[in-house]
Design a protein that fits this description.
The complex is a heterodimer of chains A (313) and B (268). Chain A starts with a strand and ends in an 8-residue tail after the last helix. Chain A has 313 residues and is an alpha/beta fold. With 268 residues, chain B is mainly alpha-helical. Chain B has one domain. Chain B is flat, with a radius of gyration of 19 Å. The chains are: A alpha/beta (313), B mainly alpha (268). At the A-B interface, helix 7 and helix 12 of A face helix 5, helix 7 and helix 9 of B.
């Protein structure tokens, strides 16, 4: 079953966030991405797993070596040039898939989102007609293994949700989150998870979203206040924590925007956790020093590179 | 007997330091280690106070009689602040791990300083000068400990280490605000110390005694650094990392003044 199965990719350990951003695939672009891989020479089956912390191309074909070279070239052409890509073939590729699905390879080991994300990737591959046998069986076995790992080990115990990690980090900065103003940007699945965790921690929630109706719906559920995304700059001047969980394809904040916000805050701390690539804020913001403590921005940069929202695996 | 109490105080400060350190890095189990550290710190302070009272009674040298006694008083004051913080609440309890070794060092250093009253100043002004300078230095010592804790905790947060020290150290904002308050307390005290020192020194001019040495310039430098940290925080929003670095730089200057006293005693 493992012969001819190959995976080529990068993750949070092997590539910087900028490289992961360049190769990012939005959820609605997964099918097209799979079709593009399927069109490569020698590829019979393909799955594209793209989260905020990893982009991996799984493929099955006759010749593992030429297949791996094709996948590597494909990734390099799409923005992965100069980036170290890892590669596993045969049994090693299957083991890697098992590790990823079981959340053993995640930034937050044991977080449950990755399994759902790989399932979405497999569903996209199926609907693109890219799973015909071998790779499909490998993925099905990987899901079974992940389930066993969760039920038969203690991996799911304790602190595993990416949103809850963000809450813990925020506690390390501010202490108690009770009554703290926390802005959740976005109203998707991950924003929902973040809102739930933050509401449980006693935070006073503000939700900003491009679609105001969705922001209102989420706000009603968690006793939050809804705001249009156009208020983002103003909102950031008043909150303590901002969790960005949008699928926006561009930056929501530029370096200039952040500088303006921090100037208005007069150095008051702002912990910002951003998720899915591209991160909601320009990379340049990480080195902003003109209006506030550079460390604060470095801290925010670190936050931006880690937790929340959408994909995490 | 004096030496016995001093040795007991030093040993107990050392034990408290080790216990707090093992608690902070998670080697020792949490509760017994914390309790033992508190008991050790308290016992060390009792031995220390007893030593200082006996010295006053038997030798007639009070807490501000000279640099020797001043350093010992400073060590006691710093330990007292750390102990009070442990009793007041859990948030700043681990501060002791940064403060206890400093207390021990100051206590040991005080024994190396010339115990003779070599200072050219005398009378009430000397008492105010030494007392307020000691209070200011104690506040800066606590601010330094908080700044050091801030940088350690900041590193834990940035590296997203959610166990161990991250859980035992106070939140960054608590450390930042407490450090600011310590400096806000220490700066007026040091200002008073400098002004009274200068006034008393000027009174001695007529007697041909030199009133300025490199230590005084350095003390002015310490004052300037902490004043800048405070002013930049209030006027330019300097907080967190930058304020912590500024505090550490200021305290390093203060340590150089103390080392100066250690090396040369109270002589100019």
């Amino acid at each position: 079953m493992t012969e001819g199965v190959v995976v080529v990719g990068l993750n949070h350990r092997t590539a910087p966030v900028e490289a992961r951003e360049r190769l990012a695939v939005p959820p609605d672009g997964l099918e097209d991405a799979v079709r593009a891989v399927l069109a490569l020479e020698g590829v019979r089956e393909a799955v594209v797993v793209a989260t905020c912390n990893r982009v991996e191309l799984y493929a099955a074909g006759a010749e593992a070596e030429s297949l791996a070279n094709e996948l590597r070239r494909h990734m390099q052409a799409r923005g992965g040039s100069g980036v170290t890509l890892y590669e596993h073939r045969g049994e090693a590729a299957v083991q890697h898939a098992f590790r990823v699905c079981a959340s053993l390879d995640s930034l937050v080991v044991g977080e449950p989102q990755i399994l759902g994300q790989v399932k979405e990737a497999v569903a996209a591959a199926r609907s693109a007609g890219a799973l015909r046998g071998r790779l499909g069986r490998v993925m099905a076995r990987a899901f079974q293994t992940a389930k066993r790992v969760r039920t038969e080990t203690g991996i799911a115990e304790g602190q595993v949700s990416v949103a809850s990690v963000a809450v813990d980090l925020a506690r390390g900065i501010f202490g108690d989150l009770m009554g703290r103003k926390v802005l959740v940007v976005g109203a998707g699945k991950m924003a929902l998870g973040a809102a739930r965790t933050l509401a449980r921690a006693g935070a006073s929630l503000l939700i900003a979203n491009r679609s105001f109706d969705r922001a209102e719906a989420l706000a009603r559920e968690y006793g939050a206040t809804a705001h249009p995304l156009t208020d983002l700059g103003m909102l950031l001047q008043h909150v303590d924590v901002a969790v960005c969980s949008t699928g926006a394809s561009g930056y929501l904040l530029t370096r200039h925007d952040v500088a303006t916000v921090m100037k208005a805050r007069r150095g008051r701390g702002l912990f910002r956790a951003t998720s899915s690539p591209p991160r909601g804020t320009s990379t340049a913001c990480s080195s902003t020093t003109s209006t506030t403590s550079s460390a604060r921005w470095r801290r925010e940069g670190a936050g931006a590179r880690s937790p929340p929202s959408r994909p995490s695996g | 007997m004096l030496v016995g109490f001093l040795a007991a105080a030093a040993l107990l400060y050392l034990i408290a330091t080790v216990l707090m350190l093992t608690y902070l890095v998670g080697v020792a189990s949490t509760l017994p280690s914390r309790r033992a550290a508190t008991v050790s710190l308290g016992a060390a302070m009792v031995a220390h106070v007893t030593h200082d009272i006996l010295r006053w009674v038997t030798l007639g040298r009070g807490p501000f009689a000279g640099i020797h006694e001043g350093l010992s008083t400073l060590a006691l004051l710093v330990a007292g602040v750390a102990f009070a913080l442990r009793l007041l609440g859990r948030r700043l309890e681990t501060l002791g791990v940064f403060v206890a070794p400093l207390t021990l060092l100051m206590l040991l250093a005080s024994q190396g300083v010339d115990a003779q009253p070599a200072a050219p100043l005398s009378g009430a002004l000397l008492g105010v000068h030494v007392g307020s300078t000691i209070l200011g230095t104690a506040a800066f010592t606590v601010a330094f400990a908080l700044a050091a804790a801030y940088l350690v905790q900041e590193r834990e947060v940035r590296q997203k280490r959610l166990r161990g020290m991250f859980q035992r150290l106070p939140p960054l904002e608590v450390l930042d605000v407490a450090s600011f308050r310590s400096i806000a307390l220490g700066l007026p005290a040091l200002t008073l110390g400098l002004v009274t020192g200068l006034s008393a020194g000027l009174q001695e001019v007529g007697r041909g005694i030199p009133i300025v040495s490199w230590r005084h310039y350095l003390a002015l430098g310490v004052w300037a650094v902490f004043a800048a940290v405070l002013a930049l925080r209030l006027l330019a929003g300097w907080r967190g990392h930058r304020a912590a670095i500024g505090t550490i730089v200021g305290y390093a200057s203060a340590v150089m003044v103390l080392v100066g006293y250690f090396v040369r005693g109270a002589r100019l």
